[in-house]
Amino acid sequence: MPNGPLIVQSDRTVLLEVAHPSAGDARHELAIFAELERAPEHIHTYRITKLGLWNARAAGHTPDEILATLERWSKYDVPASVTIDIAETMNRYGRLSIERDADGLLLASTDAAVIREVSKSKKIAELLEGKVTDSTYRIAPWARGTLKQELLKLSWPAEDNAGYRPGSHYDVALRQEGWSLRHYQEKAVSNFINGGSGVVVLPCGAGKTLVGAASMAATKTDTLILVTNTVSARQWRDELIKRTSLTADDIGEYSGSVKEVKPVTIATYQILTAKRKGEFAHLALLDALDWGLVVYDEVHLLPAPVFKLTAELQARRRLGLTATLVREDGRESDVFSLIGPKRFDAPWKEIEQEGFISPAICKEIRIDLPDDERLEYAAASDSERYRMAATTPSKLSVVKRLIAQHPEERILVIGQYLDQLAELGAALGVPEITGATPVDERERLFQAFREGTERVIVVSKVANFSVDLPEASVAIQVSGAFGSRQEEAQRLGRLLRPKKSADVATFYTLVARDTVDQDYAQNRQRFLAEQGYAYEIVDAHTIQ
User: What rounded mean pLDDT belongs to the chain?
Assistant: First the structure.
């Protein structure tokens, strides 16, 4: 469009003019295939990556659609080199495929030159058992996952058409009494089932658990569900009992405290990666039953050892659920290879506009360090500075004033450092929930918060993920995991479930001005900026 909000550059970066009236629409379409790198006030910088383009291709988008997006919103002509590069990159997906015949797995291609090229790679050759025809090679039975990883490193992502073991049949049905799947949840399930395996990306509060339940109803098989913690495991159990034909007797919990294996088993990542005498002690769980479906909740948090285990689970259908594919360790490519490509992605603001998640206002409250702390900060080592700035006692009075501004709302005070949280809990006279809080006590306190008998609670990162607190409408973040974009998204996500008590949620981030605390905050905000959330900068002195 003439004078559009985008400038597409030949190095595959895209500049977005934030103040342009069409910036929001352009951002939603751009986020399908590009990653936000920098988000200062006026111009946001995106990068078009190979993995982003392949994920878009796997989710059903074509090169023509991607190029049409850029041409529609670009202020100037899209460079010819970018046009060619996007088409060629996306067309690499699926040129190689993994197939199955009566004798096992095959690496196949309609392009003899491509398959000849990859087969000469030393790391690929180790995974192949020999040529079958000019266009096919036999794959070692154990190498399906590893082969996909190695092919991706060579920029030849393979489409996995080898199918999956059906698993033991187990009848699961949705009980849609007084509710029904939303249109985007139905589309997510359809894309997943038709694609075979892969990842569904939905905002926090948009019903990822229901996508998992509906996928179980579609596959009707023994299912292993992997979750972040025991509280999450029990919330999954309760939701499955409420929404499906499953009963408590059908569902087992496999965690640090309980070791049950049933047709639907919910296990924590921690127990799966627990070691005894140097070996993973609970790997037998992976073969305890003939699982036909493995669900990975919060797949962006998948621990490194689970990637290795997942490489051996390629014959099982796999569903990853997450609010963001961002990983701070850079292992997005392993999610793509081993869990599967992105099958469905719904922009946060789009879901919000339809009324399925609450709108939210984000405010960054900047606090000046007192002179004595500023001098101490200046003299500190680089490794000490973030903790000093993030835990400044000056934040306490600001937290108290913010709580006073929301007398009728339920408030989460969220932080990273346990001593800071203990001080806040004591000063505010409210409960504190950390990793050291017993699971039963956590559940009791979370329930008291839901019911309103506890209006304010102080929480550590244990509340970042998979904790259903629908009535939370205010969050005050006092410290975070350095510059973690995924954590920022999850913390805002605690507020996005539709609620009766407030029309708009408010997410405050308290930041020490002119310190690394402020620098990390800017990085944490990048993913949410990509989703259309803007942070209003507020001086702490203006808060009454």
Answer: 89
- Amino acid letter at 313? L
220: left (phi over 0), alpha (psi -120 to 50) or beta: left
Q: How far apart are CA 366 and CA 541, in angstroms?
A: 9
pLDDT for 481: 75
Task: Please name the residue ranges forming H helices in 328-412.
Answer: 332-334, 348-353, 371-379, 382-390, 394-405
Average pLDDT over residues 389-404: 94
- Is it true that domain 183-352 has CATH number 2.40.128.110? no
> Where are any strands of DSSP class E within 470-523?
472-477, 505-512
> pLDDT tens digit string along 51-67?
999 999 988 899 999 99
| Average confidence (pLDDT) over 196-208 | 88
**Range in 57-66, 123-132, 496-505 with the lowest mean pLDDT:** 496-505
Residue 470 has pLDDT above 80, yes or no: no
**Contact of 522 with 480, CB cutoff 8 Å:** no
Greatest Cα-to-Cα distance within the chain, rounded to the nearest angstrom: 76
Specify whether the CB–CB gap between 125 and 137 falls below 8 A.
no
Where do the H-state alpha helices sit in 220-347?
230-243, 269-273, 304-311, 332-334
Structure tokens of 243? 């929404």
CA distance 128 to 98: 12
Residue 544: pLDDT band by 50, 70, 90 thresholds? Answer: confident
> What tokens does 251 get?
């569902």
Selecting from 3.40.30.10, 3.30.450.40, 3.40.50.300, 3.40.630.10, what CATH number does the domain 358-542 have?
3.40.50.300
Distance of CA 32 to the CA centre of its chain: 15
Q: Which of 436, 431, 427, 465 is nearest to 448 (CA)?
A: 431
Instruction: Return the domain boundaries, the chain.
Output: 6-92, 96-156, 183-352, 358-542
CA distance 213 to 215: 5
Average of per-residue pLDDT across 497-504: 71
What residues have CB less than 8 Å from 60, skipping those under 6 apart?
A: 191
Q: How far is CA 230 from CA 212, 237, 462, 463, in A?
A: 18, 10, 10, 12
The CA-atom distances, in angstroms, between 385 and each of 254, 392, 479, 508, 518 are: 40, 11, 13, 22, 12
**Predicted TM-score (pTM) of this structure:** 0.83
Tokens matching residue 440: 């039963």
The tens digit of pLDDT for each residue in 79-111 reads 999 999 999 999 999 899 999 999 999 999 989
Q: Strands (DSSP E) along 178-276, which ranges?
A: 198-201, 223-227, 251-254, 264-268, 275-276
Q: Which of 326, 341, 277, 331 is nearest to 304 (CA)?
A: 331
User: Residue 76 pLDDT more than 90?
Assistant: yes
For 301, phi then psi, to 5°, come to -100, 5
Q: What is the DSSP letter of 312?
A: T
